[in-house]
Amino acid sequence: MNQIPKVAVVILNWNGLKYLRQFLPSVMTSVWPNLEIIVGDNASNDGSIEFLQQEYPYIRIIQNDKNYGFTGGYNKVLAQVEADYFILLNSDVEVAPGWIAPVIALMESDPSIAAAAPKIKAFAQRNHFEHAGAAGGFIDCFGYPFCRGRMFYEIEEDRGQYQTSGEVFWATGAAMFIKKHCWVEANGFDDRFFAHMEEIDLCWRLKNIGYKVMYCAESQVFHLGGGTLNVENPFKTFLNFRNNLLLLQNNLPFWRAVFIIIIRIWMDLLAIFRFLGEGKRKDAWAVSRAHQNFVVSLFRKSEVRSQQTANRKLPTKRYPLKGIYKGSLVWAFFTQKIRHFTELDQDDFF
Predict the structure, then answer these.
(1) pLDDT in tens, 146-172
(2) H or E element, residue 13
(3) Per-residue pLDDT reduced to its tens digit, 100-127
(4) Rounded CA separation 138/155 (Å)
(5) Is residue 216 part of a domain?
(6) Domain membership of residue 262 as a residue range
(7) Residue 342 within a domain
(8) Would you give the end-to-end CA distance of the chain in angstroms?
(9) Does residue 125 sit in the same domain as residue 266?
(10) What is the pLDDT of residue 299?
């Protein structure tokens, strides 16, 4: 008889007391025969630790000495967790009954599956998908990420149109299931990202060394979104644009990365003009700062980055990988007025 794998649900917290109060009760009802629930804390000062110690004394707490962001925080916390599967869960996520078993069953069915995510729906509008992951993540030829159920700011209603599980390009960090040995093999998150798109980078690196990333339609969670960084926060804009360039640099062959990044920087100028036209000068400046930071980082020696690169396996394959849209999402969305994933030509996907 096969041993039941140990599953660790790990919530990373930073001054998220109100989210722990609201969403932790649903997580505590999770059912799995060999389950541990852990809160990793990035040096919160809002009473989160005291609340957990008083209300949930049986939850394991792993405390970091400072705020290392989403990437560094999880890297440090998960290094101290023993389990067959990690579930990285945002503190602002309500889980549905029976959400763990279908995903683990899917991942156990194929040893080449490294990571997976459930269906991500909006907590405030529960019949709609949520921006962070919807029904599985994809990416276009210029590195723009999107989802089944979400293209840029257009969110679809869940009418059962994505009720089939299957391989995708990336799984959201809001509720990511990952086998521990795959996490270790890929050397976890890239600390340079701090937050945002780090999960896409991790999934891309996993695919580059031959693993699959899946979407499980039989499981769903409800994500509030914007808990730590509001959608309108210019720092979030900075991270999204800067990290998108890091994503391309990390995962494409050198000369292809150079070619695509140059095109992307020019395409991002359109975003600057759009922000200026909407009166969002701070966001426009955030995009410019993102470009500056990325260019400067190319010439900056980083001991952390060098160590991470040294620890990574060289990819066995680079391109194409399943889940990449061969066309331009910008062209499809803004010129062809395509708003739904199902309207894209499915023959245009690798």
Answers:
(1) 999 999 999 999 999 999 999 999 999
(2) strand 7-13
(3) 999 999 999 999 999 999 999 999 999 9
(4) 15
(5) yes
(6) 234-314
(7) no
(8) 38
(9) no
(10) 81
Q: How far is it, in rounded angstroms, from Cα 36 to Cα 58?
A: 10
pLDDT tens track for 293-312:
999 988 875 544 444 454 44
Question: Is 262 exposed, middle or buried (CB count within 10 Å of its CB: 0-12, 13-18, 19+)?
Answer: exposed
Give residue-wise pLDDT tens across range 33-62: 999 999 999 999 999 999 999 999 999 999
What percentage of the chain exceeds 70 in pLDDT?
92
d(CA 52, CA 91): 13
The span from the CA of 134 to the CA of 111, in Å, is 25
> Structure tokens of 128?
């709609």
Task: Tell me: do 53 and 103 sit in the same domain.
Answer: yes
Which of helix, strand or coil describes residue 201?
helix
Question: Is the preceding peptide bond at 320 cis, omega within 30 degrees of 0?
Answer: yes
Q: How many structural domains comprise the chain?
A: 2
Q: Which neighbouring-strand residues pair with 36?
A: 8
Length of the chain: 350
Cα–Cα separations (whole angstroms), residue 199 to 129, 176, 219: 19, 8, 19
C-alpha 175: how far from its chain's center?
Answer: 8
pLDDT at 316: 47
CA distances from 125 to 92, 148, 157, 235 (A): 14, 17, 9, 26
- Beta strands 166-168 and 150-151 are unpaired
Helix (H, G, I), strand (E, B) or coil at 125: coil
Instruction: Say which amino acid occupies 38.
Output: I
Q: What pLDDT is stored for residue 232 in this prediction? A: 67
Strands 7-13 and 150-151: unpaired
User: Do 164 and 242 share a domain, yes or no?
Assistant: no
Q: Where are the alpha helices (DSSP H) in the chain?
A: 17-28, 48-55, 69-78, 101-108, 180-185, 198-208, 234-251, 254-277, 281-298, 303-311, 329-330
| Closest to 41 measured CA to CA, from 77, 8, 72, 9 | 77
